[in-house]
Amino acid sequence: MEKKSYEVINGGDGQLSLATEEQMWYKQIIAILGLIDNNNNRLIVDFSIKDRRLNRILPNVIHYYSIVHGNTDIIADMNEYQFPDYDAEIAVCTDVMENLNNPLWFLEQLSIHYRKIIISYKGKEKFKQSPFYSVDIINELGKLGFIMTKRSNAFADNWTLIACFEKVEPSVLKENINCTGCGACYNICPSNAIKMCYDSNGFLKPFVNRDTCIKCNKCVGVCPAVTVKKNNHFTNPECYAVWADEKTRMISSSGGFFSIIAQDIIEKGGWVFGAKWSEDFYCEYVGTNNINDIEILRNSKYVQSNIKKSYSQVKALLEQNIQVAFFGFPCQVAGLKSYLGESYLNDKLLTIDLLCFYAPSNVLFRNYLDENYGIDNVSNIIFRDKKQGWSSTGYRVELKCGEVLYPSYEKDWYQQAFQNILGRNDTCENCRYANFPRQGDFTIGDFWGIDMHDSSWNDKMGTSIVLVNSIKAQTYWTQACRLFARYENVPLEWALNKGNRFHGEGRNRNKNYSYFLRLLQKKTFNESVKLALSGEHDIGIVCLFNHNIGNNLTNYALYQYLTDRGFTVLMIDKAGDCNFCKYDDRLELFLKNPYQRCDIAPVYKDKYAMVDLNDKCGCFVLASDQLVRAHFIENMNFYSCLDWVKSNKYKIAYAASFGTEQFEGNKELCEKAKFFLKRFQKFSVREESGVSLAKDVFDIDAKWVLDPVFLCDKSLYENMARIGKLRLPNEHYVGAYILDPTQDRADLIKELAEKKCSGNALAVIDTDGYPNGDFQWSIETLKNVKNEEWLATIANSDFFITDSFHGVCFALIFQRQFCVVYNKWQWRGATRILSILKLLGLEHRMIENKNDLLSNEFFKEPINYNELNYILAAKREESIQWLEKSLAGVNGFKEEYTLYDIVLEQERLFHDKYDKIEEEIRQVQSDIKILYEWQTAQDERLNQMRDEFPILFDWEKAQDERLNQMQHEIECMQKRYNFLATQTEQMCDNDIEQMKKEINKLKGSSFFRLDSGCKKIINKFLNILKSKNKIV
């Protein structure tokens, strides 16, 4: 199979540099790995173009086979319609179908031989040369009996589809990512082997009892999420605005459509099915033919409802020729129709689907009730109560004691969670039914925004939107419309883009959804909503994100440890106006981003804006690494001293490092740093020498603790290293991580490699100083190294050499034999490394040059990790106890505002005003620039016209000159007129006659004919002369 190149539709020619392509392949394999279960004895057949890449990172318990034409365990060429007759559990197909002549044949063969199919595909929606859209692949596999159970969206820019598909059978129905919990499978199961139970997030899913399942597969056949059934309803339905009578509207959620239709059906001898609250506030479906029961079915229930055996009951009624009206979510209507089959979809069944925003977990709602009111104290819940008028947030809680509460949106955490879309799961977020044609014969909901088109339809009592989706509905509506107080056929466009979900319209799920789910595992419902909406966290870790691997891993280790301890943690980086260690992508060195998106604080524009973080974090922990080294403090303008944190916030420094044995700053820097560091409530240092430095220089009592990387379990780093193995050599090697590469150190590495691994060596150099690994020396060097690859380099080496503190740390964690090369004159210093080595009695592992290596005896005496692990475990426990005790001090901590806080606030206000002024100046400058550009464009256009029409501009010039001459003559006449006017009283008859002659002579001049203003002046003057003559 020849690999094709692909052009991205929205730009670029698809040609990638080797380094970029390598990173893309790496990302793809990591995403694929996340879709594979690590169970024992799994058999995987890899159809990928890249031969045997996946095998490098799979667990040893998985058996792996590769298929590439002409060079693998199994030889087959799918373009020659060769398919290996080899049955296994999982097929992995990465970038295969894009290169096949007949992809559909290939999918069919896969469906015959495998139970799981993992696919990465570049769909036509983004890559125009691809034969299919991603949805085509999903639908084709659906036809072949496969459902999508997992999907990765991590690298959607490169692969539009990375997903796992499983052969559908009863036991995997609950894994279908499109399962809505509609209950069709539960209703059809002849052996009652299926129960609708709540999953870990509180949503109903079908759980199968394998012991009682008879494998009839009726549940598979009926599932609307497995096979999308044909829908013949209208794609452009008639739309109506509807009012019931005022009394009915006042007790309804919107315009009263449900109540009127339900009453009509029951009065005609029919049954109505809808959702009601059980006594313990589970939302369950029931059917009724009693008009008095309409009340319990009325009003919205903002939770997922349990359909129970309603489908079976509907079928039984239809078999008795009894009319049924079924009200439900579109997915529930789809489930009912699939369960009944075409033969039951006759005129006796009327289906009405709701315009559904989403269905939150009923379990969470009950937790909310119990937490806020005591669930045993509540008698009824009415969403969309109209005491305050028609709105989406009206709410009434009726207590058994007789008290009625109307919680406001601002004070009710469930309303805030619902309206801010914190509880929408993946299935609802990617709803298949929020489109046309609709599932129900009718669609009903709130006609939000109708007053934008006709204000008479909003009297604050509620208006229903009614869509007539089928011929059956049209027939019924011709009679039923008369039951309403007011109805009007209006354009469907009136309902679009007003909040209801049509064609994927409406708001997306809250960005903090995953954070909300995590919070619910540790905190109360109210606390979880509050923290998720505000973005507040228990702890803010103040760190520096740079392109140094040790820095990346020590930050992550502290984050992971505190997260595992049950804290919510926000990672904070320096302000955007700080140019020290500034990078566009702060997490670029991770192959797989280990942080939750909501746990990374945005980059604030300046340190004064960071003051807002005081309201986002319960306390602050200064991370490890050299954040309190003098030039770090100075270059970051005291950011790491937490000068932007208020006095009433608890401040801890964990494993802070001064970098060297002396503080390198001048007296002024030292005094300023002392002021801020003494504001910390607890302070610990990474190096033993830091204890005395903190006391002598800053008058701080500090505790010596281990670097955060030692706090986490080794398995964390082993899992990271596993996905970093792709570029490692197959043979044994000496690994090296060198921050300051020199040829002398290259010679030393060579010498070690000759002694240990037949000359094989693999080096990584400082990713910050040499980001591309392009230092010229004679050692094979891994370029563009990521954190996981760096860990893999250490974990898989036979011997390790480094000049890095964190290189030593991970050599100890992975229990490698190692040595440390250092230069006591280099700026990094040896203090950091010596501290940990002294603790373990390994000072002799430090060497300066090759001569030290040759004379050192450590080759003969390997490190005894049994003894070292005991020492490390004791120090680790001591460090953890210090940190835990320090964090416990947050509770009950109270510190009054100080003068510094007042100054900080005033300075911030000043900067806010200054920023506003600067913004106004920038706006004025922008306006001036626009005007200048416009003027320049006009001048250029004028010059262009002059060049194109020189004759016209010569004429224009002549006219300008003529105009100037006329203006001069007029001015002269004006002066003459003014003079004559003053002399008129003394004129005699002869003078007047003479003047008339002169004026008449002027009237015959050329400029008189051209200038009407001049004519008016002369005529006025003549009239004066005439009147004067009469007087004379």
Distance between the termini: 119 Å
Strand line-up across the major sheet = 11-10-12-13-17-18-9-19
Main sheet record: 8 strands, mixed
Shape: globular
Radius of gyration: 40 Å
- Which whole number gives the mean pLDDT? 86
The secondary structure category is alpha/beta
Helix content: 25-40%
Number of strands: 30
Question: What proportion of the residues form beta strands (DSSP E)?
Answer: 5-15%
Number of helices: 32
| Poorly predicted runs of 5 or more residues | 1-20, 1006-1011, 1028-1032
Write up this protein.
By secondary structure, the protein is α/β, with parallel strands linked by helices. Helix content is 37%, strand content 14%. The strands form six sheets. An eight-stranded mixed beta sheet has the order 11-10-12-13-17-18-9-19, sandwiched between helices. Helix 22 links the parallel strand 26 (734-738) and strand 27. Helix 15 (513-520) packs antiparallel against helix 16 (525-534), helix 21 (714-722) crosses helix 23 and helix 29 (950-983) runs parallel beside helix 32. The longest helix is centred in the last third of the chain and has 50 residues, at 899-948. It starts with 17 loop residues before the first helix and ends with a helix. Mean pLDDT is 86; it is low at 1-20, 1006-1011 and 1028-1032.
Give the structure's gist in a few sentences.
This protein is an alpha/beta fold and 1032 residues long. It is 37% helix and 14% strand.
Index terms:
single chain; alpha/beta; 32 helices; globular
